[in-house]
């Protein structure tokens, strides 16, 4: 502390400068939503400079007197993401300045983005769509959640109204799901190792992914197999290791409605496969399998079930041990017996230890 009467410390005042307000960060999905709305609102399209200086999510960081390199890069990434959403973002050249990237305009043709005239949602359906978006929110499908939310909001649906007290979480257990989903969006050929039942080792497959669908609680990939030049359907749970894009290899968009057709084909395959099973009365097998029975003989303790994949079904039946016997078909009975022999051999003591 200075002595009394000595020189007093000077008070340094802050140098006045331009006032800067701290802007809250704009979530990525809000920025994408704002960009979609802006591009839908104009028939002529918007210049990149107009987008960066006016659209929420860019405008807050736009520097009118300096470099906007980071915003440029952000916009390029956002363009790719919007197209991955299935939104038809177009680039329009200026007629009097062909080849000039600075004069390019961006737009989303409203007629191509609107729902077909025959598609209408009831209030209950809109509520369920909102609930579906909440179910996926912040779950293992969070990336897909943001895609769904952006589409719903662009349709005028705000999926935040609570419908029930909680939203269950969906979990994708197959590691191949996300890379295949990305390959579908980008129309990118991929390769992966696939372990087909009956083979001793996985084999590499090179495919054009066409659809990923859920059937009987399992994810299936429908794809064009490049090696055999024919369509094939794969269980994601049998894909071993990484799904890797094939550099420089792309393909045309899959035909419309392919997901529905694949699900219908799997359902038809399931109906063609029927098994007659003898189940022990009062057992776990009777309770669980009995719920799925399409026919039942109470006196004989026999039920009939449909199934899609024989190997998957054989794995399930073998887990019940002596509680279930396969009466037909013979191929399924042999498959279950082989699995039970493997289990028995694994638990049999070696001869030397007896």
UniProtKB/TrEMBL annotation:
Chain residue ranges for the region called Disordered: 1-25
Domain of life, per lineage: Bacteria
Location of the WYL domain: 176-239
InterPro entries to which the protein is assigned, alphabetical: CBASS_pafABC_assoc_protein, WCX_dom, WYL_dom
Domain called WCX: residue spans: 276-341
Protein name per its UniProtKB record: WYL domain-containing protein
Gene source species: Agromyces humatus
């Amino acid at each position: 502390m200075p002595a009394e009467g000595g020189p007093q410390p000077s008070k340094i005042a802050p140098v006045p400068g331009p006032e800067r307000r701290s802007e809250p960060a704009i979530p990525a999905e809000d920025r994408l939503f704002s960009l979609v709305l802006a591009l839908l609102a104009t028939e002529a399209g918007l210049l990149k400079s107009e987008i960066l200086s006016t659209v929420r999510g860019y405008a807050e960081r736009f520097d009118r007197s300096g470099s906007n390199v980071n915003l440029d890069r952000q916009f390029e990434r956002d363009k790719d993401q919007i197209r991955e959403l299935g939104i038809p973002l177009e680039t329009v050249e200026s007629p009097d300045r062909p080849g000039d990237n600075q004069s390019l305009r961006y737009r989303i043709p409203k007629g191509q983005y609107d729902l077909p005239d025959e598609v209408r949602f009831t209030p209950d359906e809109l509520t369920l769509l909102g609930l579906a978006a909440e179910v996926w929110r912040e779950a293992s499908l969070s990336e897909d959640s943001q895609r769904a939310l952006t589409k719903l909001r662009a349709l005028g649906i705000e999926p935040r109204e609570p419908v029930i007290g909680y939203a269950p979480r969906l979990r994708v257990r197959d590691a191949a799901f996300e890379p295949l989903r990305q390959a579908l969006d980008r129309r990118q050929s991929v390769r992966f190792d696939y372990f087909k039942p009956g083979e001793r080792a996985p084999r590499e497959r090179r495919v054009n992914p066409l659809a990923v669908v859920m059937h009987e609680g399992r994810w299936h990939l429908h794809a064009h197999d490049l090696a055999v030049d024919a369509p094939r359907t794969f269980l994601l749970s049998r894909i071993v290791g990484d799904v890797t894009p094939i550099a420089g290899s792309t393909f045309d968009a899959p035909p419309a409605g392919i997901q529905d057709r694949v699900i219908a084909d799997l359902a038809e395959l399931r109906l063609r496969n029927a098994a007659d099973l003898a189940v022990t009365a009062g057992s776990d097998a009777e309770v669980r399998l009995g719920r799925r029975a399409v026919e039942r003989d109470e006196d004989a303790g026999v039920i009939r079930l449909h199934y899609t994949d024989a190997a998957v079904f054989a794995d399930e039946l073998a887990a019940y041990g002596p509680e279930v016997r396969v009466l037909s078909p013979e191929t399924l009975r042999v498959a279950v017996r082989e699995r039970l022999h493997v289990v028995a051999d694994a638990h049999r003591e070696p001869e030397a230890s007896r």
